[in-house]
């Protein structure tokens, strides 16, 4: 896994819809202690995570999704998934533009070297 995506309390609440994580956990009849052990946290840390008091890493989000047999996308609201897709397309487009500009700079540098000689 590359750079870990850290999710803020606000983002966690947007993704999990407030105390949605607790509701899902209750549906499975899992205790906070059980969940904490499954994802490698202490019970008190898991409780703070569930209440949104601490940030949740992408790694823990993936583990939680696996425990509940859900896709990570199911945690996100539809518009958030769409926004992520659009942002990824924008990033790819901007990277392409940057690459083209870098190539153009190299061409101009070579032209200048030829003129200066």
TrEMBL record:
InterPro entries: Cro/C1-type_HTH (IPR001387), Lambda_DNA-bd_dom_sf (IPR010982). Keywords: DNA-binding. Residues 21-75 form the HTH cro/C1-type domain. Pfam families: HTH_3. It comes from the Bacteria. The keyword DNA-binding applies. One of its GO terms (molecular function) is DNA binding. This is Helix-turn-helix transcriptional regulator. It comes from Pedobacter polaris.
């Amino acid at each position: 896994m590359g750079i870990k995506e850290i999710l803020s309390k606000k983002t966690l609440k947007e993704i999990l819809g407030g105390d949605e994580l607790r509701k899902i956990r209750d549906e499975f009849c899992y205790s906070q202690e059980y969940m904490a052990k499954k994802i490698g946290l202490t019970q008190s840390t898991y409780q703070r995570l569930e209440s949104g008091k601490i940030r949740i890493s992408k790694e823990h989000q993936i583990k939680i999704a696996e425990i509940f047999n859900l896709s990570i996308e199911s945690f996100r609201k539809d518009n958030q998934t769409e926004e992520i897709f659009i942002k990824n397309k924008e990033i790819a487009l901007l990277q392409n533009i940057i690459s083209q500009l870098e190539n153009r700079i190299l061409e101009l540098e070579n032209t200048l070297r030829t003129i200066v000689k």
